[in-house]
Inverse folding.
């Protein structure tokens, strides 16, 4: 028979969901809870429930004799920051002293695998955000101090007894499952209080502090779904941490999404989702609360394979979807954004250039048509701003004057001497004009190949994003089951967003490229026709 997992605090908000997830995975579960802050009804009936405290030596010995447990998931703790400031000794007694008794009796019973419910409160006021696991531990309230101290106790336990210990540092747990939700007395968590106000069971939301050094003055937190937290506990029990050896190993892992939201931002999201007005009242800061706590989530993904799918499954805006997508998808979207910015810049640039050349052509032709002779046309053209047309005329006239030094007067072209251009000289003149036409065409075509590149590469990037999104969706199915739309939705949404983003870049790029290539052909045709007209005019005026 498979050994049981002992879950302390399994009747609480997070503990009850952890128990449910363990049962789904086929683990026999024994729950130990004194029900001082938990609810017996929250414990799944398939689990064995024992009412008792973690500091009761006799009770623990009796439990561990009756049930063979090879792993411990320790969630039992007091967890109210404000209360810890008011009652620091009570928190130390329950969270540290009683925890030592639990570890002592578990070690005596042969338990060598421990998953501990720690907290981001161990970081205090972090110097860097997002917060990595190796950041300095400097808690600013007694609750965080008890978590830090018990992590040290666990490290000693791992070294002394050869145990494997994973301390999961939760950021802000949130959300609910079909069967489990939050039921605290008093309720201090933000989202339940927002919903209480929205449903009319509470008059207003108390915002604890509006003068933090954050964008809107309210505290910023990293909200992680309780299902993701529960999944992380299961993964921590199953993970091959490697290198534990006879001296054991203790490691800490952040549980967060890596994205922070302020209290006001969450309140606004609740207003949008519920369609209700939610009155908020500013209150003084709560003692011991840091202004911003956001996790660096890389270790959880690398070590436990937890991607926090559920916690980011219901973005309320497209921007939130982008912020909560996977790093790979963010990279694809970032490249597409760069492509889009550059392509639209080139589209407007080329539109302006072709529009300007059209105006130059119209003005040039108006001046030329008023001239009766080529020399008059030459002087009129040289008075105009530089354009492909007067550059072509100037190049032709200048080369002709080099071929026939006596063919031009000081005040402009004049009738040439009776000696005509040789066939070779005439061909050279045509080649010079053709070269100038080609140079002007190449100048007008500058950057057009980039539009073609963006138009062809962007759909491929969109396809790459689609593949990444589908992979995330399959991961969500593996984590939350095919019937859990909240676990599958992020991957599907990422696939759709990247596909649409790829097309949004490609379609205007390809359309603009085709339009400008057509205009380039017309422009080059006009120049070629004008070059032939220059030679024809010289012939009619007897200059050739």
């Amino acid at each position: 028979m498979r050994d049981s997992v002992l879950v302390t605090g399994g009747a609480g908000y997070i503990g009850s969901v952890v128990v449910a997830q363990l049962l789904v995975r086929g683990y026999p579960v024994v729950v130990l809870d004194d029900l001082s802050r938990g609810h017996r009804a929250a414990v799944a009936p398939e689990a064995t429930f024992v009412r008792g405290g973690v500091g009761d030596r006799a009770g623990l010995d009796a439990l561990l004799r009756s049930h063979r447990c090879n792993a411990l998931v320790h969630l039992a703790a007091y967890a109210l920051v404000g209360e810890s400031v008011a009652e620091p000794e009570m928190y130390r007694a329950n969270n540290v002293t009683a925890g030592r008794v639990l570890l002592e009796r578990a070690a005596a019973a042969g338990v060598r695998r421990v998953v501990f419910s720690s907290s981001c409160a161990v970081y205090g006021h972090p110097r860097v955000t997002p917060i990595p696991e190796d950041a300095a531990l400097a808690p600013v309230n007694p609750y965080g101090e008890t978590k830090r101290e018990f992590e040290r106790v666990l490290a000693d336990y791992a070294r002394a007894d050869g145990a494997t210990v994973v301390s999961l540092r939760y950021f802000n747990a949130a959300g609910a499952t079909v069967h489990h939700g939050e039921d605290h007395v008093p309720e201090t968590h933000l989202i339940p209080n927002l919903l209480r106000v929205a449903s009319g069971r509470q008059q207003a939301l108390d915002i604890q502090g509006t003068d933090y050094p954050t964008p809107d003055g309210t505290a910023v937190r990293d909200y992680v779904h309780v299902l993701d937290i529960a999944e992380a506990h299961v993964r921590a029990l199953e993970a091959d941490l490697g290198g534990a050896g006879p001296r054991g190993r203790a490691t800490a892992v952040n549980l967060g999404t890596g994205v922070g939201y302020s209290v006001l931002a969450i309140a606004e999201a609740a207003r949008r989702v519920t369609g209700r007005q939610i009155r908020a009242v500013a209150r003084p800061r709560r003692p011991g609360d840091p202004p911003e706590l956001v996790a660096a989530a890389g270790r959880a993904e690398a070590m436990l394979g937890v991607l926090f799918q559920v916690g980011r499954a219901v973005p309320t805006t497209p921007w939130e979807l982008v912020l909560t997508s996977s790093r790979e998808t963010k990279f694809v979207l970032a490249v597409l954004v760069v492509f889009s910015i550059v392509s639209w810049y080139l589209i407007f640039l080329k539109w302006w250039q072709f529009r300007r050349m059209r105006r130059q052509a119209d003005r040039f032709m108006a001046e030329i048509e008023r001239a009766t002779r080529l020399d008059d046309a030459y002087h009129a053209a040289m008075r105009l701003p530089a354009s492909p047309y007067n550059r072509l005329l100037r190049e032709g006239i200048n080369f002709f004057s080099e071929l026939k030094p006596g063919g031009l007067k000081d005040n402009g072209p004049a009738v040439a001497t009776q000696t005509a251009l040789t066939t070779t000289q005439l061909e050279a003149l045509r080649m010079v004009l053709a070269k100038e036409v080609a140079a002007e065409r190449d100048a007008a075509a500058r950057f057009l190949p980039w539009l073609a590149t963006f138009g062809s590469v962007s759909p491929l990037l969109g396809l790459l994003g689609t593949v990444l999104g589908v992979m995330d969706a399959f991961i969500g199915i593996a984590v939350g089951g095919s019937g859990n739309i909240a676990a599958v939705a992020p991957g599907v949404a990422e696939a759709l967003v990247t596909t649409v983003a790829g097309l949004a870049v490609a379609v205007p790029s390809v359309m603009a490229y085709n339009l400008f290539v057509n205009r380039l052909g017309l422009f080059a045709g006009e120049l070629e026709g004008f070059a032939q007209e220059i030679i024809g005019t010289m012939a009619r005026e007897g200059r050739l």
